[in-house]
Amino acid sequence: MKKLILLVLLIIIVVSGRQLVEIFSSYQITTTYYEIIQETYRTVVEPNITISPTKEEPNVTLSPTKKTASKKSKTQKSNKVRAHSTRLRPPITVDFPALKAVNSDVIGWLYSEGTPIDYPVLHSSNNNKYIHKLLNGEYSVNGSIFLDSRCKSNFKNDNSILYGHHMRNGSMFASLNNYKTQDYYNEHSQLWLLTPKRSYLLLPFSAMVVSTNSLYYKTDIQDKQVFIDKAINNSFFIPNTIPNVADRFITLSTCDYTFDNARLIVVCILVTTSNI
């Protein structure tokens, strides 16, 4: 009986060992694949200076007038809240024509300096398509970074949601877990989202563990102030940039293991780049 038990344990060890080898081999293959993609299609340019986005000032507009309105009413000033914008330039360039020749589902590139987040972003009508599929269509446990199928590919929703796996080797969106600490946020308070038409600066203002039916998985926001307040009040870190209701947002989502169906999200202000 003891020999039988030992034999069963030996078989389990051998099978488990083979599975571990296959998993880590898959990790290495996918890591190498993404390194090739980065070297081929993404170029790092001059180092960027980390500064806050441009300070928002009241926008002076003329009040609507009628032909009979007085001269005074025509020059009346009113304040208008504007979304954040920046004159920063992205620290990378991307060859989107070449990338889209490989896969037309490519809509952008997400980059976080000094972290593993340095990936193309894909979008399709089916959220399951890129869960375990690479840019070239091959199977991989890592999958790809992809935009929620409900979202517009030009990121014009109130809240655009990007998904990525929480990989054990730290790749894909695993490093988002580090936003649970203030120190990590202080060192990584900016990300970049490049698209074929323009670039965006992403400013994280909240990291939370939520359920899959959370408000932050909605693409259209009924009350932006509630969206902002809840995010800041429940965040693991204190942000140095606060959004306003004129802003649009990007929510980065990955798995968390705090409870069943838990998700870690990092909510960012989508900051438009302006001409220098």
Mind explaining what this structure looks like?
By secondary structure, the chain is of the alpha+beta class. The protein has a domain at about 90-275: Sortase (Sortase, Chain: A, Beta Barrel), CATH 2.40.260. Helix content is about 25%, strand content about 25%. The protein has 5 helices and 13 strands. The chain has helices spanning about 1-40, 70-75, 95-100, 180-185, 225-235, and strands at about 40-45, 60, 75-80, 85, 90-95, 105-110, 120-125, 145, 160-165, 190-195, 200-210, 250-255, 260-275. It has an 8-stranded mixed beta barrel with strand order 6-7-8-9-12-13-11-10. The longest helix has about 40 residues, at about 1-40. The radius of gyration is 23 Å and the shape is globular. The N and C termini lie far apart (about 80 Å). Residues about 5-25 and about 55-80 have low confidence and may be disordered.
